[in-house]
Amino acid sequence: LFTLDSVPEFNSIAQVLFSRAKSLGARSIASKRGEGALVSSASDLNVFVNALHGGHLIDPTELESMKSEMLPVRPFLSYGLGMMRLKLPKLPIGTKKAPLLYGRFGAFGSFAFIEATSNTFISGTVNQGARPSIGFKLLTKIASHVLEANQPGR
Length: 154
Description:
By secondary structure, the chain is α+β, with helices and mostly antiparallel strands. 27% of the residues lie in helices and 21% in strands.
């Protein structure tokens, strides 16, 4: 959230795109109090996902409830208790079963997920709000490449 103390940092934060027009710096994200008013880097998101899945934020039994009590939203996406489960739509080379990613998509194309079998964290953002599907497409592309590279013998 931007305050008088953080004004000097205003121009150092990546701009968000609305269609072809740039917003006014990060104010459009940081001033949305109803959405949590958080502006994070991919590195921050990885720290959070690691702490959440590492048992440092909530009890591991609560995390298991978050991962298991879900309702399907799409054939490849389920949601419940603040977490999403994403089944990659395309199998990475060398895998026999579609990997499951657990995490969240955020506003403006951000995402933070973990593939628990390989303990791989994947986070990022596309900093735009006009086409929310771009963040999903980027996540699935990165996840496929990373998980493929992590296969034994590669």
